[in-house]
Amino acid sequence: MIFKSKPSFKSLLILFTAIIFLGCQATKDQEDDTVDISKSEIRQTAEGYQLFVNDEPFYIQGAGLEFGSIPKLAAHGANSFRTWRTDNGQRSGKEVLDDALKYGLKVTMGIDVGRERLGFDYDDEAAVKAQLERIRGEVMELKDHPALIIWGIGNELNHHSENPKVWDAVNEISKMIHEVDPNHLTTTSLAGMNKEYVDLIKERAPDLDVLSVQMYAEVEILPEQIKKSGWEGPMMVTEWGATGYWEVGNTEWGAPLENNSSVKADFYRSRFRKAIESQKKQVIGSYVFLWGQKQERTPTWFGMFMPDGRETESIDAMHYIWNGEWPDNRTPRINDFKLESQVAENNIKLKSGKSYQAMVDVVDPDGDPLTYRWEIMKESTTNATGGDAEEVPEVIEGLIKSEPGSDVTFSAPMEEGAYRLFIYVDDNNEHTAHANIPFFVNK
Question: How far apart are CA 42 and CA 345, in angstroms?
Fold first, then answer.
C-alpha cells in the first residue's frame, strides 16, 4: 500500500500560478496570431482608390511567380507576387506563403477555378457545388497567413467562354471567402478588357472587391479601355509584359516574330509608365509576367529568366521601375541580329545542307566579357492557348560549324520544314541577352 500525503499550501500555490501563467500565455499567443494576420482593404482617398494593408498604403509592385525565385524578386525591389493556384505541384500554398513572409513579400494567392474551354460545365450544379467546397477547404487552410493579402479567383475565365454562369460561380466563391475570411480581398483576372465582360462582372459578380485584367501589347490602350468599359472601381493588372505571340507579325509559314530581349525590356518600361503608373486613381498595382521561365511558342517569349536561372534585360527594366535606379550590373543589349544580312521579317528560306552565316551586334553596359551560344531549334507545332503547357521543340545538334562568337557559320538542317536560329549572349555575371530568327528549309 502506498500512502499519499496531502498537497501543501505552497505546492498548491505553485500549481495555481503555473495554470494562470499558461492560460495567459495561450491568450497572448492567440492575440499574437490575430495581430499577425494581414488585414487588406480598399479605401477611396483624395488620390483615388488605394490598397491598405494593416492600415498602411500598399501599392503593388510585383510579378507573376509560380516556380521562380522569391529571394531574387525581393532583392530586385518588388513587394508582392501572385500565383495561379494554391498548390503548384512542387510547393504547397503554405510553403509559398512562408517563403514570401521570410523575404518580406505579400501574396495574391490564386485559386484554380474550372475553365469552360478545358471542359468544366457551369450548368452542372453538382460540379459547381463540389468546386465551391474544394475551394472552401483551400481558403480555410491559408486564410490566416500573414503574407496573404488578396484571393485571385480563377484566371482568364472569359477566355473561350460562353456560359455566363461562370460569373455566378465566381460571385458565390467570393461571398464564401468573405464569410470565412473577412480580412482579405477578392478579385478575378480577365483576359483583356471590354464592356461586355465588365458588364457581366457588374451584374453577376458584384461581391468582388477588385477587377483584374491581363493585357500585353494592348496594355498600352488600357486607359482608353477603362473609359470605354465603364468600369469605375478599383483595378489591378495581373499580367502584362512582352508583346504576345498573337499580337505580332508572322512569316509566310505562320511563325510568329519574337522581339529580342532588349526590345522587350524597353516595352516593359514604356508600358508601365504609359498604362499602369498613369492610372493610379484606379489601378492599385500590377504583376508583371513572368518571373520565371516557360515554353510558350519559344523558350524565351515571356520568361524573364533563362532555363538556367540567368536574368534577362526585362529584369533590369523592372528593377529600375521598382527602385528608380538600375541594378549594379546590367544585362547585355542587342543592337542588331541578322541571318544572311536579312532580318526575320524577310521570310528567310534556306536550302537543306547548305552553309549560311549569321551575326549579332551586342554591347554590355558594364564592359563585361561576353560569351556567345548559338542554337537551332525546330519551330513549335503546339497550338496551346491561354498559357497551357507546351512541349519544348527539338534542338538540332551538329549544325554549328564555327567557334561561338558574334558571327557564326552553320549548316541548314537536312529535313525540310520550319526552324529558328537562337543567339544567347552571356555576360558571365548571371545575365543573358537573347534573340531568334525563324527560317524555312527547302530541299
Answer: 47
